[in-house]
Amino acid sequence: MDQNVKQKVKDIFPPGDATDAREDLLVYGYDATGEERIPELVVFPHSPEQISAVLKLANEYGFPVTPRGAGSGFVGAAIPTHLGVVLSMTRMNRILEIDTDNLTALVEPGVITATFQQKVEEMGLFYPPDPASLKMSTLGGNVSTGAGGPRAVKYGVTRDYVLGLEVVLPTGEIINTGARTVKSVVGYDLTRLMVGSEGTLGVITKIRLRLLPKPETARTALAVFATVDSAAKTVSAIIRDKIIPRTLEFMDKSAVAAVEDYLHAGLPTEAAAILLIETDGIAAIADAELARIKDICVKMGAVKVDVAKNEAERETLWKVRRSISPAILRVRPSKINEDVTVPRSMIPALMKRLAELSERSGFPIINFGHAGDGNIHVNVMTDKKNKEEYERAKVAVDEVFDICLELGGTLSGEHGIGISKAPYIEKEIGGIGIELTKKLKAVFDPNNILNPGKIVPEEAAC
Ligand SMILES: Cc1cc2nc3c(=O)[nH]c(=O)nc-3n(C[C@H](O)[C@H](O)[C@H](O)COP(=O)(O)OP(=O)(O)OC[C@H]3O[C@@H](n4cnc5c(N)ncnc54)[C@H](O)[C@@H]3O)c2cc1C
Q1: Is the pLDDT score of 460 beyond 70?
Q2: How does DSSP classify residue 215?
Q3: How remote is the CA of residue 297 from the centroid of ligand 1, in Å?
Q4: Half-sphere CA count of 26, side-chain side, radius 13 A
Q5: Is the CB of 236 under 6 A from ligand 1?
Q6: Portion of the chain with pLDDT greater than 90, in percent
Q7: Which H or E run contains 162?
Q8: Best mutation site among 88, 113, 133 for ligand 1, i.e. most ligand atoms within 8 A of its Cβ?
């Protein structure tokens, strides 16, 4: 970026809200992929008008702008691959309204997911989307990636809770989408288009969210299985019995062993797989559903099913689940983490095919995730520093995607596409889908200044 242009951007902000000090830039160029690109300037807007002014300059002088939440994304979507300006949304972090009459909330995008959940729960309300990163991720990042979590099996993902948005378009205009009503069918659903668009179609500056009454109680159980197949088949058996638990999480043997090594939580390391199951609602219903699930687990071959006796035990089980990502990095220095999703009934077939792939390719593949909605986090364990090995690992990942699509699945259930999965997206949406995506991007962002190079592979981008 030209120094004069950089100064023009800095002039939009008061001192302290714009920086190009090297040590500051270093911390805004990475995300959870471990990839990194150091931006030229980082700004911390407090208003949509400031963002609009930055984007107008970007169109005039042709520099790229990358919105950023907490940088916890798994696909490189927040990495400023073309350098330029990073818009850190973390200082737009106010909860503006919690409307208890209409069960909605209005928030700025930089609010941390867990902070918001805690606030609404104190008021007897409930915001279900619960990515495992909830203590660090922002609501703006969640909306932009369409984040999900364990509770998606019963309550859906972030997309299902967004009623409307305030968005600064790449060309600088500020628009409002959606409505604060429960229903609205006015024109194209621009809100849904923005959700999951990974900061490529606009910068989200306000989010109106739907809330639910907080369930009276939740019950949690850990079911231990001697084979992966019996655990995988139990997932379908529970749903077939017409029970939708609040969560239905899967961990394979290597995931269990890695977390035990990391946390020393007393996990059954002899297990081939475990399921972490939760029911909720009125106490009598939560208890009755858990009892039925327990019976199904035993019938399907569970070696044992332990029910958490109190809140502390529940919290330990969830700590186990949330620690898998960091814990498995002790197995190998790097992981290629894909969140493929298949129809639930295909989980046993997916597990079998992944075990075969692991054996054939020689790479440890660690699997865990939201089995209740068919979303399995497949981790091909490798060492990025070993170039030859890493290239072979990428071939194995390519095969993971093929297996998933053959089983009627999708490349990403919740992490998005970013740069990591852009090379594979055509496998799923096809050439016409890519063309349409490019045309949509060009309508919103004719000069391709907002988060360029994401979602569609670079050579196919506008
Ligand atoms: C340990 C760990 C566990 C995780 N578990 C889960 C999980 O269970 N489920 C899940 O879905 N994900 C999970 N993730 C991935 C990640 O946390 C989510 O993708 C999250 O939604 C990203 O939020 P963020 O605030 O960090 O966004 P960032 O990573 O900063 O950005 C993500 C994308 O959103 C865009 N963006 C951010 N804010 C805005 C805005 N205001 N306007 C427009 N675009 C914006 C960025 O440009 C980028 O494209 C996990 C990550 C980690 C590290």
Answers
A1: no
A2: P
A3: 34
A4: 3
A5: no
A6: 92
A7: strand 162-168
A8: 133
**What's the rounded Cα separation, in Å, for the pair 85 and 82?**
9
Cα of 344 to ligand 1 centre, how many Å?
A: 25
- Span 430-450, mean pLDDT? 97
Tell how far the Cα of 301 is from the centroid of ligand 1, in angstroms: 37
Of all atoms in ligand 1, which is nearest to the CA of residue 150? 8
Is the C-beta atom of 452 inside 6 A of ligand 1? Answer: no
Q: How far is the CA of 284 from the centre of ligand 1 (A)?
A: 36
pTM of the model: 0.94
Taking the centre of ligand 1 as the mean of its atom positions, its distance from the CA of residue 294, in whole angstroms, is: 34
Query: DSSP secondary structure string, 14-74?
Result: -TTSEE--HHHHGGGSB-TTS-B---SEEE--SSHHHHHHHHHHHHHHT--EEEESSS--S
Beta carbons within 8 Å of 303's beta carbon, 6+ residues apart:
224, 225, 226, 268, 271
C-beta 198 within 6 A of ligand 1: yes
Q: Mean pLDDT across the chain, nearest whole number? A: 95
Distance between CA atoms of residues 241 and 298, nearest Å: 14
From start to end of 308-345, where are the E strands?
A: 334-338
Average pLDDT for 105-120: 98
Q: How far apart are CA 76 and CA 198, in angstroms?
A: 10
Q: In 3D, which of 244, 171, 146, 217 has the Cα closest to residue 455?
A: 146
Question: Which residue in 340, 322, 317, 350 sits closest to 133, CA to CA?
Answer: 322
Q: Read off the pLDDT of each residue in 248-274 and give the average, rounded to a whole number.
A: 92
- For every residue of 371-409, DSSP letters joined together read GGGTEEEEEEEE-TTSHHHHHHHHHHHHHHHHHHHHTT-
CA 402 to chain centre: 21
Task: Count CB-CB contacts under 10 A for residue 176.
Answer: 13
**Nearest Cα to Cα of residue 438 among 421, 424, 426:** 426
Beta carbons within 10 angstroms of residue 31's beta carbon: 23
Domains of the chain: 3-90 (3.30.43.10), 92-213 (3.30.465.10), 217-406 (3.40.462.40)
Contact 138, 107 (CB under 8 A): no
Atom of ligand 1 nearest to the CA of 158: 11
Whether residue 416 contacts residue 75, with contact meaning beta carbons closer than 8 Å, is answered with yes
Compute the distance from residue 32 Cα to the ligand 1 centre, in Å.
Answer: 9
